[in-house]
């Protein structure tokens, strides 16, 4: 039997404790900024959610855009680090909070979330668990709400995770509950990540 925890094939808490966070670019991905600030894509308003939030850059960004945002990470150290950074930035805890819980089992609020941003969280789990991820996203996003997926990487570069993905992999697990309403296959990029990527927006049916 496959457990949802199997996607954690590395000890994320230990990585955070020793500072082994080489995936951390220290900023919001430019593709998300472009989607909101330059493409002016009209996202649903309300509550936001960022799984695998790390230091919380995306949480802070969405909070500054008017959302009440929850960042989730399996690592307590990551959430503590993000909370400290939030406080240093003067962002109110009511606008940006962090929870160290399991993506698949934490209690979803009754209002659900109107915007969920998945930045490589999908690629951090084994492909066999992707169907479970799609089902959970359907539970998280309210009707008419949006799921943003930053798709990367499309090929192996190092030892996994992240596992490489395809657009079809997202369609396979999302199409039953979401409509693809926007995709940019050549979004803005900045060093150190200049490889092929794409950003997509899915609307909850």
Automatic annotation (TrEMBL):
Q: GO annotations under biological process?
A: methylation
Q: Does the keyword Protein biosynthesis apply?
A: no
User: What CDD domains is this protein classified in?
Assistant: AdoMet_MTases (cd02440)
Q: Which GO terms describe its molecular function?
A: S-adenosylmethionine-dependent methyltransferase activity
Q: Which UniProt keywords apply?
A: Methyltransferase, Phosphoprotein, S-adenosyl-L-methionine, Transferase
The family database entries (InterPro entries) matched by this protein are listed as: SAM-dependent_MTases_sf, TPMT
- What Pfam families is this protein classified in? TPMT
| Protein name (record) | Thiopurine S-methyltransferase
Q: Which organism is it from?
A: Furculomyces boomerangus
